[in-house]
Write a structure and sequence with these properties.
The complex is a heterodimer. By secondary structure, chain A is mostly beta strands. Helices cover 0% and strands 51% of the residues of chain A. Chain A is built from no helices and twelve strands. Chain A has strands at residues 3-5, 10-14, 19-21, 24-26, 33-39, 46-52, 60-61, 64-69, 74-79, 88-95, 104-106, 110-115. Chain A is globular and about 45 Å long. By secondary structure, chain B is mainly β. Helices cover 0% and strands 52% of the residues of chain B. In chain B, strand 7 (65-69) and strand 8 form a beta hairpin. Classes of the chains: A mainly beta, B mainly beta.
Chain lengths: 116, 113
């Protein structure tokens, strides 16, 4: 079974600053996908970034980037130039694409608060 | 619509009543998932549909929970004889196929009194 651990319940960052969220996971699989989703107070889960394990290059999406360390089973998210709209709960998620029906396993989440 | 929609947005019910929650996936998406988000348990997988069949029901917590999908589109999650521990946000997600990125609806917040 896979487990996903987010060890930071809450992080606070000032506007325009950078914050890094940690995520570690445990799996015996070699091929898998990792995701970061954000959930603002509206409750809508929004995809932030996706990483395929077979790709060595770290995924980036505008101000969001990941540091994927496969051997260490670590998948951290960096938010650069933080904006007030980035305030949300951030979830790290693991997907085993084959044999797992693509279901997502989520970490407990990290609440990010961006302050003016 | 362009995204996944769910109804109702909020539902308050009395213990012992049955409830139905609806999910409309993104048009053309064959894979559909239900998840539950609660304070105590976090985000949990409930059930997966591929077309109208459910090859993975492993996350359904009890036989009071059931789900169906018709026409490869709309899905309904039914909870019979609701209990207070069923109070949670129920999220639906769809993807073009099982290995692809899932897109979530806004969820249904269920409160059982």
């Amino acid at each position: 079974a896979q487990t996903v651990t987010q060890s930071q319940p809450e992080m606070s960052v000032q506007e325009a600053e950078t914050v890094t969220l940690s995520c570690t996971y445990d799996t015996s699989e070699n091929n898998y996908y990792l995701f970061w989703y954000k959930q603002p107070p509206s409750r809508q889960m929004i995809l932030v970034i996706r990483q395929e394990a077979y790709k060595q290059q770290n995924a980036t999406e505008n101000r969001f980037s990941v540091n994927f360390q496969k051997a260490a089973k670590s998948f951290s998210l960096k938010i650069s130039d933080s904006q007030l709209g980035d305030t949300a709960m951030y979830f790290c998620a693991f997907m085993k694409p084959f044999g797992g029906w693509g279901k997502l396993q989520f970490g407990a989440g990290t609440q990010v608060v961006v302050t003016p | 619509g362009a995204g996944v929609s769910q109804s109702p947005s909020n539902k308050v019910t009395e213990k012992g009543k049955d409830v139905e929650l609806r999910c409309d996936p993104i048009s053309g998406h064959t894979a559909l998932y239900w998840y539950r988000q609660s304070l105590g348990q976090g985000l949990e997988f409930l059930i997966y549909f591929q077309g109208n069949s459910a090859p993975d029901k492993s996350g359904l917590p009890s036989d009071r929970f059931s789900a169906e999908r018709t026409g490869g589109s709309v899905s309904t999650l039914t909870i019979q004889r609701t209990q207070q521990e069923d109070s949670a946000v129920y999220l639906c997600a769809s993807s073009s196929r099982a290995q692809e990125t899932q897109y979530f609806g806004p969820g249904t917040r269920l409160l059982v009194l």
